Amino acid sequence: METNTTNSLTFKLGSDIEINRLGYGAMQLTGYGVFGEVEDRENAIKVLQAAVAAGVNFIDTADAYGPHLNESLISDALHPYKEGLIIATKGGFNRPGPNQWVPNGDPDFIRQNIEGSLKRLKVDTIDLWQLHRFDPNVPVEQTLAPVAEAVKAGKIKYVGLSEVNIEQIERAERVVPIVSVQNLYNLGNRQWEEIVDYTAKKGQAFIPWFPLASGPQKLAEKLGKIAANHKATTAQIALAWLLKRSPNILLIPGTKSVDHLNENLKAGEIELSDEEFAELSK
Fold first, then answer.
1. Does residue 6 surpass a pLDDT of 70?
2. Looking at residue 94, which CATH number applies to its domain?
3. Is position 221 within any domain?
4. Are 243 and 235 spatial neighbours (Cβ–Cβ below 8 Å)?
5. Chain mean position to CA 161
6. What average pLDDT score do residues 150-154 get?
7. Contact 85, 23 (CB under 8 A)
């Protein structure tokens, strides 16, 4: 495991998009089971607007959140978009009901996802479009064909992947350049360590989903002690650990609370020592 010695709070996506590494994941701004409209839409709009006002310039959403409703919420809250604000979305899931996620890599479905996201987000170009999952029933070369077409047509600027291994990244890159990978990763679940290091070496962003999970009970005492030393919450320390883990990590913690949002963003002010990082990493 390689670690980040200089804690820069920005990362360059692709060749030209400067992103604040503390972003916002909008998945929670939906109904139960990431399905249907968010319960308090007015509050959800306030959270999105507060995130941008606080300096967040990277918001992660997906066609599947709602489905569709999360993207529409973001455009209702933030369009016309502040200059430099990056909205990343995803495609490739059917949503038959709450907590039900069915990969669909059919090229026609992917094409519909892209066109739908463009309309709902009210943009001519999606800054970052991510394949939500590989469909085991459809060769990824077929799935990504309409994505490559959309890149050529200027409808997508950059392409990313989610929940993939190295072999899958390399296979996808034979179809279209990949600038980011979004896998499950946090202080307590580090199954994708090799992907963090692999993407860092390639200059690709690594976007951990579920970044706030602080891990098993055995970590609680260490986290509590280090949090107390920094006058911080354990969640802030978990995020600070990720920021120090690798300079290509972009964080997208989600919340329905403006107070919690501001608490998460303050994690960027915490500098863990090498000793603290090592202790948490054991």
1. no
2. 3.20.20.100
3. no
4. no
5. 10
6. 98
7. no
Contact 142, 135 (CB under 8 A): no
Looking up tokens 């839409």 gives: 41
Compute the distance between CA of residue 83 and CA of residue 72 in angstroms, rounded to an integer. Answer: 19
State the catalytic residue, choosing from 24, 65, 81, 158.
65
- Structural domain boundaries enclosing 83: 10-213+245-268
E strand spans, the chain: 10-13, 17-20, 24-25, 58-60, 86-91, 93-94, 102-103, 126-131, 156-162, 180-182, 205-206
Domain assignment present for 109: yes
The question of whether 65 is a catalytic residue gets the answer: yes
* Residue 281 belongs to some domain of the structure: no
Task: State the residue for tokens 């260490």.
Answer: 222
Run of H or E including 54: none
- Number of domains forming the structure of the chain: 1
Q: How far apart are CA 214 and CA 79, in angstroms?
A: 34
Which two structure tokens, joined as six digits, stand for 170? 């390399």
Q: pTM for this one?
A: 0.96
- Please give the Cα distance from 234 to 182 (Å, whole number): 23
Report angle CA 94, 209, 80 to the nearest 5 degrees: 75
**CA atoms within 13 Å, Cβ hemisphere of 117:** 29
Q: How confident is the model at residue 220 (pLDDT cuts 50, 70, 90)?
A: confident
